[in-house]
User: Which sequence fits this backbone?
């Protein structure tokens, strides 16, 4: 028999300084190597564990790459139809006000087919958390153009680059919803470096804590890579993300405690 | 005996929901059913029972709110009319797939498209044969009076939870709008959180340490798994067909001919029956109350006794297909219908019986 990589005799409780949270199910993730989804899953589950609210949390997964999020998150969850997660979460939170409720959605789900559900849940000031993974592409269906695909960016349905004249402009839904009075906390983060990972985890904690005070929507956008959809290596895709996605989708807090943080000037080019 | 009131059908639906212990109503205004939400908002059910009422941004949102709440074991209802129900088909299919209980009221208006706001029964196929994608069924109840608008809400919730399935109340603009006396059943308290969790161990209510996490979904990417899901659903539908058929017969004992009609059409046929019998025509009325499950055997038995059947519907001939499948080809079965919001008169129904069945 093959020798185990980690010798069991050193895997003792007193030697463990960091481990997978029990709130992540011990099974292989369905995500491509290099993708940010797994990191965000982990941060979310670690935060629930730290807050000790596993038994008080109900999550809603989308249609998209993270359709199977409920297979990896060891909490009660519902799989929504494409774009409808905020409608599910609205009703769940209204009927279970003491539960922590979140939706986990991608850009096609949240900013295209689910635009109405997103905007109206935000505008009603529903008291749940939205985790929005923006990688500028439809990952699961094979790399088609998304509402957040950058101008000039290539995808399988914009093979010569997104032409904004005929295909429309990328939708900055996060800025859009930040202007709604029902939205209390909006931030845009990333998970491609350890420091960004730490910031995102802090944002998730802040967003979930906010639910205790019934102050309205907490909205966290995570700008992420899609190395498979972008046809790059993971390293290339993270570099491309820094050089192209971040200038268009600048990181940082957008709205804190119900107040817009700053007005950012953004150049409309890829 | 419960409280006696004079109410619109739509109001009776709303009051029945509060009294049935409904936890939440999610809806969107559309004629001719807007009184449901109007009544609920005016009644402040939150103060009466703790029931939540929310006006959604669309029928798409309301059905998905239902899906979310039903997935947590809550007792929830929505109502709409034909174009809105079309928008809900996605959510209904998902709820059938995820086996979630809910009551959906369709106060049918004439179509297709934006159609008209007048009463119709043209959504029979949509309600009974599926409507959304995939192999699924809903239990479909067809009230013929304001009393049944009330009673079917309670019955609907009972069946929805018994079988974990969406239940549709297939009404129409006339029954929704007309006022009749109704005996309201005594209020049933809403379930407590403990009762809900105990009665619905399948529901996603928050995972305690000592049980596995619950996933509410209609997705199974493994074809073998998805086939198992389908087989389970089909077995459930067979069970429903075995246990839950409801129908009403009127004057069928000596009948030589039969009207077959549901909902408002059955009310009209009652009058047509009187007119025809005054002329010496021995005609009875068979009214399916459940459209799915369809009363196949009862109607087949009657088919062996009568010379012909006239299926009266406010559509171009939809339920007649199920009547023919139930009876076979042994007797004459014809359809009489008016469309687009026109309600047939009792006289023209008798005329249709005389010309299409007796003289035909």
Assistant:
């Amino acid at each position: 028999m093959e020798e185990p990589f980690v010798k069991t005799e050193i895997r003792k409780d007193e030697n463990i300084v960091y481990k997978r949270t029990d709130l992540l199910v011990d099974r292989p993730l369905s995500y491509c190597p290099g993708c940010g989804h797994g990191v965000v899953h982990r941060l979310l589950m670690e935060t629930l564990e730290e807050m000790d609210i596993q038994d008080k949390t109900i999550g809603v997964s989308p249609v998209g790459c993270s359709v199977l999020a409920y297979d990896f998150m060891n909490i009660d969850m519902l799989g929504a139809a494409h774009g409808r997660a905020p409608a599910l979460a609205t009703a769940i939170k209204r009927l279970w006000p003491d539960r922590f409720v979140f939706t986990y959605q991608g850009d096609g789900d949240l900013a295209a087919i689910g635009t109405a559900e997103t905007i109206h849940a935000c505008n009603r000031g529903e008291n749940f958390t939205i985790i929005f993974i923006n990688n500028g592409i439809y990952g699961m269906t094979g790399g088609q153009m998304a509402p957040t695909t950058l101008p000039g960016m290539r995808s399988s349905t914009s093979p010569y680059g997104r032409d904004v004249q005929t295909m429309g402009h990328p939708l900055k839904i996060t800025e859009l919803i930040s202007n709604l009075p029902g939205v209390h906390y909006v931030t845009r983060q990333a998970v491609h470096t350890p420091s960004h990972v730490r910031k995102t985890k802090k944002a998730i904690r802040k967003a979930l804590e906010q639910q205790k005070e019934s102050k309205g929507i907490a909205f966290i956008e995570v700008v992420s890579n899609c190395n498979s959809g972008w046809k790059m290596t993971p390293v290339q895709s993270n570099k491309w993300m820094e050089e192209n996605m971040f200038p268009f989708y600048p990181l940082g807090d957008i709205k804190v405690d119900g107040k817009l943080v700053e007005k950012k000037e953004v150049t409309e080019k890829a | 005996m419960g409280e006696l009131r004079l109410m619109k059908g739509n109001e009776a639906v709303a009051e029945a929901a509060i009294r049935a212990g409904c936890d939440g109503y999610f809806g969107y205004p559309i004629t001719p059913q807007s009184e449901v939400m109007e009544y609920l908002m005016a009644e402040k059910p939150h103060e009466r029972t703790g029931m939540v009422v929310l006006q959604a941004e669309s029928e798409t949102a309301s059905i998905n709110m239902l899906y979310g709440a039903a997935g947590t074991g809550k007792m929830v209802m929505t109502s709409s009319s034909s174009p809105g129900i079309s928008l809900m088909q996605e959510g209904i299919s998902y709820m059938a797939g995820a086996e979630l209980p809910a009551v959906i009221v369709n106060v049918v208006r004439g179509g297709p498209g934006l159609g008209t706001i007048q009463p119709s029964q043209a959504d029979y196929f949509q309600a009974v044969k599926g409507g959304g994608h995939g192999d699924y069924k809903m239990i479909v109840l067809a009230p013929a009076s304001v009393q049944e608008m009330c009673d079917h809400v309670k019955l609907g919730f009972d069946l929805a939870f018994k079988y974990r399935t969406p239940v549709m109340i297939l009404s129409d603009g006339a029954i929704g709008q007309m006022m009749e006396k109704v005996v309201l059943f005594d209020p049933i308290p809403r379930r407590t959180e403990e009762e809900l969790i105990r009665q619905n161990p399948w529901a996603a209510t928050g995972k305690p340490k000592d049980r596995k996490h619950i996933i509410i979904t209609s997705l199974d990417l493994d074809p073998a798994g998805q086939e198992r899901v389908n087989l389970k659903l089909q077995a459930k539908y067979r069970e429903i067909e075995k246990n839950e058929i409801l129908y009403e017969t009127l004057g069928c004992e000596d009948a030589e001919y039969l009207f077959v009609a549901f909902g408002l059409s059955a009310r009209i046929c009652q009058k047509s029956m009187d007119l025809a019998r005054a002329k010496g025509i021995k005609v009875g009325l068979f009214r399916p109350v459940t459209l799915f499950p369809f009363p196949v055997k009862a109607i087949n038995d009657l088919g062996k006794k009568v010379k012909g059947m006239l299926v009266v519907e406010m559509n171009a001939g939809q339920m007649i297909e199920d009547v023919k499948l139930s009876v076979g080809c042994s007797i004459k079965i014809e359809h009489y219908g008016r469309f687009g919001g026109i309600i047939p008169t009792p006289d023209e129904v008798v005329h249709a019986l005389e010309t299409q069945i007796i003289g035909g």
Summary: The mean pLDDT of chain B is 97. Residues 223-243 of chain B form the longest helix (21 residues). Residues 256 and 307 of chain B are 6 Å apart (CA to CA). DSSP finds 15 helices and 15 strands in chain B.
